[in-house]
Design a protein that fits this description.
About 80% of the residues lie in helices and about 0% in strands. The chain is built from seven helices and no strands. Helix 3 packs antiparallel against helix 4 and helix 4 runs antiparallel to helix 5. The radius of gyration is 19 Å and the shape is globular. About 25% of the residues are buried.
Length: about 140
């Protein structure tokens, strides 16, 4: 009886990494599909938030998600979401690759877009850019 319980626990714990690994390997297309509404508009901010969760565990996937978010925002013509995508790419370059030139480039791109938008979200994004430039 005790052996059966130990075996059951071992099987369960052994299966947990497989389950979480499968969740992490979810491909970017399906992630985008999850955050697409019935009209076909993608919630880029939600995609970027999902990408942020991969920044340290799966950095290549975080880069892929940030790049895809930029492409989607460009296609949708949404400058605010494009700025968010650039800021996310800057974070990837800074945190993962320590590529400060690319980080500065994408932060400058985001700053220009945030500066041209007149909204509370743009003001917050710009403040975040300035904070990141100062660190």
């Amino acid at each position: 009886m005790v052996f059966n319980k130990i075996l059951l626990i071992a099987v369960f714990l052994g299966g947990v990494p497989v389950l979480t690994g499968d969740l992490f390997s979810r491909d970017v297309d399906s992630l985008v599909r999850v955050h697409t509404d019935k009209r076909g508009k993608v919630d880029v901010q939600s995609v970027l938030e999902a990408g942020r969760s991969y920044l340290y565990s799966h950095p290549a996937k975080a880069f892929e998600i940030a790049r895809r978010a930029v492409v989607i925002a460009e296609a949708e013509g949404d400058p605010l979401q494009l700025a968010n995508g650039y800021r996310s790419l800057a974070a990837c370059y800074f945190q993962v690759k320590a590529d400060y030139d690319s980080t500065a480039y994408y932060l400058q791109q985001a700053e220009e877009l945030y500066g041209s938008a007149r909204s509370k979200e743009a003001l917050g994004g710009n403040a975040s850019v300035y904070h990141n430039m100062g660190t």
